[in-house]
Design brief:
alpha/beta, Rossmann fold, 5-stranded parallel sheet, 9 helices, 5 strands, globular
Length: about 230
């Protein structure tokens, strides 16, 4: 295994191994581990962008203003886009967990865009790729049924999972994007993974600077999907 893939797998493994403590961390911030970080109060008549994912979305180890949904909100305001960003990230979440709360998340009034970032914890638990893909497929279908645009974020898998699993896992994301004709970001952590200076002391989760890069990765794909009002 080359150095990049080894370090990447270590980072991804930590997301699962630390999911329990990251959920407890969320509880300290907001008093309920089942909910994401607190975000600015939603305004019902504003279009919503829902950041839907696991600890990378929730902002594990970060203050609220350092999480990517918060940074995205600031970026949108600075560039004149009138959207409300909802942080619907839950640390340790899997594609199944996401599917189970998808109806509630997509029930946000005036939801227009779903940023779907799930699957890393499926990988780390060795869940069958077809099961993960099916769960993500159902989430995307639910979003499209509500006329919510989807930005799907992809993830990488290490060769230690086996060449067949690695191939199927990595291909699942672009295959879904093609099948449903939705926007696609190949790797959320591009430019951040494996760089010690861009990750927290645990070496697993992006620090504030790394999260800023992650937010820019998302914004580069998200921006063409938006409308100025």
């Amino acid at each position: 295994m080359n150095c990049f893939k080894l370090i990447l797998f270590g980072m991804l493994s930590g997301i699962l191994l630390l999911s329990g403590c990251s959920e407890r961390g969320s509880a300290r911030v907001q008093g309920n581990a089942a909910r994401p970080l607190v975000t600015p109060e939603a305004v019902a008549n504003r279009p919503k962008i829902i950041a839907f994912g696991d600890s990378l979305t929730a902002g594990f180890g970060l203050a609220e203003p350092e999480s990517y949904p918060y940074l995205l909100q600031q970026k949108l305001r600075a560039e004149g886009y009138d959207y409300e960003v909802i942080n619907a990230g839950v640390s340790g979440d899997t594609s199944l967990g996401g599917l189970e709360r998808a109806d509630w998340v997509l029930g946000q009034e005036n939801a227009e865009v779903l940023i779907l970032e799930l699957g890393a914890n499926d990988l780390l638990r060795g869940m069958p790729v077809d099961r993960m893909k099916s769960n993500l497929d159902k989430i995307i279908r639910k979003a499209k049924e509500k006329n919510v645009k989807v930005l799907l974020c992809g993830m990488l898998a290490p060769p230690t999972m086996g060449s067949s699993y690695q191939r199927d896992y990595v291909n699942a994301f672009p295959d879904l994007a093609d099948e449903h004709d939705v926007e696609f970001l190949p790797f959320l952590l591009a430019g951040v993974a494996t760089k010690r200076e861009l990750n927290q002391a645990d070496g697993l989760h992006p620090n504030a600077e790394g999260t800023r890069i992650m937010a820019e990765n998302i914004y580069s794909v998200l921006k063409p999907m938006l409308v100025k009002r």
